[in-house]
# Entry
Amino acid sequence: MNSIKKSIICQNIKSFNIDNANIRNYQPIAGDVAIFEVLALGSLNAIQNEEGRNCYIFTGDKIMLSFGNRYASNQFEGYVPEGYSDEYDLIGKGGVVGKVHSMASRLELKGPTKLRLVGYATDHEGEVINTIYHSGSQVKFNVNKARSYKTILSLGSSMDSGKTTSAAHLCRGLKTAGFKVAYIKLTGTVFNKDRMLANDCGADAVADFSELGFPSTYLCSLDCLMNLYESLLSKVASVKPDYVVIEIADGLYQRETNQLLNYPLFRETIDHVMLSCGDSLAANTGIQMLMPLFGHRLFALSGIFTTRPLLIQEVEAQCKLPVLTLEKMQEEQVLMGLLTQKLRITA
# Structure
């Protein structure tokens, strides 16, 4: 067992047995833990291990992973398989295994890393271990709960639009302004880079869905997402933040993002919204989608387009919303002026 390389999503699995008796009959669900042998390396040649660092894998290695679904337009679309398979795919570097349904064209040459199921990780009663809420309790969403902090929702027009960078630098700007700030990532696929960036930017507390054992949130029900949301807010509440920055993965059309944005009880918990975009057209379309939902709580635009002066000019010529570069987020007068102005409008 000491030779098994454990992925970060399985970091809380301290004691287990390997059961290979029912691998052909057992139907895995999201969160189920199993041991795999690496058959052939593909586009992912490493996993994030339980310490959060890159751990390179090689043909013949035994690795501990969690079954899960994945939605990533620039990576893999993958699902928990139905029934036994001779081969499985590594679909997430944080330790997510499934079967690839589609992939970005840039990955097609190498494809996914191929795996063989060795056996399921079971507890002392012989039950397959599941990572979801394995070491932490679920907190039910409470719409009436009093919250002493303001929330800022960081959204992106699509995957890789810059929302994580924007959220992290927003944390830094708020810290520079003298506030206590927490960061949570509510949806996505396990990978600790995002929360570590927020931590490095000065957030007083960081938490994401994977800390509660979710290999990903793709295909979770709305009730599940809302309970996960409450659980993450509870995890960071101990630092008594003035602001909680909330990131939702992928784009506005993505399933879970779209569900949350169109759920009134979720929107009621949001005080401010920042939209990150990759180009000027996405900024305009995003505003049209979000204004009916959030009104003046949508207070700024950011994202990859802000690294290109010509695109900033295009956006500013077409849109009335302020554009926040990463540098402007560090300017206390600019940032707090925008937040307090929107607060007055919505009060």
